[in-house]
Design brief:
223 residues; alpha+beta; Pseudouridine synthase; two-stranded antiparallel sheet; 6 helices; 10 strands; 26% strand
Amino acid sequence: MIVNRAQTTAGKITLEDWLELKGIRGIDRHGIVHRLDKDTSGLMVVGKTAIAMQALQAQFKERQVKKSYLALVHGKLEPKKGSINAPISRNPFNRQRFGIFVGGRSATTDYQLESAYLSPEGEELSLVKAFPLTGRTHQIRVHIKSIGHPVVSDLIYAPKKLLKFDFLWCPRLFLHASKIKFSHPKSKKDVEFKSDLPGDLKDALSYLTPLRFAERQLRGASN
């Protein structure tokens, strides 16, 4: 579901529309304090009152909200743990894309390898946990591609020669907001929410061979 209403969303139900139907009215942006890219699944936080929204916005601004994403990316991720610190802005040559440009807004993404797989075509893939410390548009997708690992089935940033194979087994962008932690606006206690991979992404993983299993198979065949 698309998050915000826009001219390009005419005729489509957005999260803003859904929240209005649920009775959250009279609050700026219906309480939405952050966004997910259109094809990204997972957790979002909405303030049901203006006071709650303002408190949550302040936490995002001060980088107190801890977010974790799961992304399946092309290639063997090395090093297995690291941080990408590079400025992001809209691509002046293609307004639908963002990229790393001098003068862009500061952006930092930490990451670590979760597991490795082989695709049906024999390509190595990496399941990555990504921790964006800032909230720039397309941040994880842009940052992870900048180190040579585009996200699987990414219509905007993955090369077409990879996409044609990705879509044979993964129907959409393999990016999922899996965990979020913040301070409750009323109680001030830390709260944490988790979201398992949805069915379509679990199904996509079922087409892959865990790399350790594949390596054992290769060793067995050579003996």
